[in-house]
């Protein structure tokens, strides 16, 4: 299983927003660690992956009512 860092541009822009996505990201197998830089204008979500794909992370974020776009 490949470990890698995935980054996404999001609209998660405050602590309340982070708390809405937290249960989904915390409970997903394949995510070792994650954080959102709400001070960055692009609200960058960084995920330390242990096998989860970018599409799977995007689906989790979208299921919580937010947008996410994978960055290269």
From TrEMBL:
InterPro entries with a match to the protein in the record: HMA_dom, HMA_dom_sf
Superkingdom, natural source: Bacteria
Annotated Pfam families: HMA (PF00403)
CDD domains with a match to the protein in the record: HMA
Signal sequence segment: none
GO molecular function, one term: metal ion binding
Span of domain HMA: 3-69
The protein's name: HMA domain-containing protein
Organism classification: Bacteria, Pseudomonadati, Bacteroidota, Bacteroidia, Bacteroidales
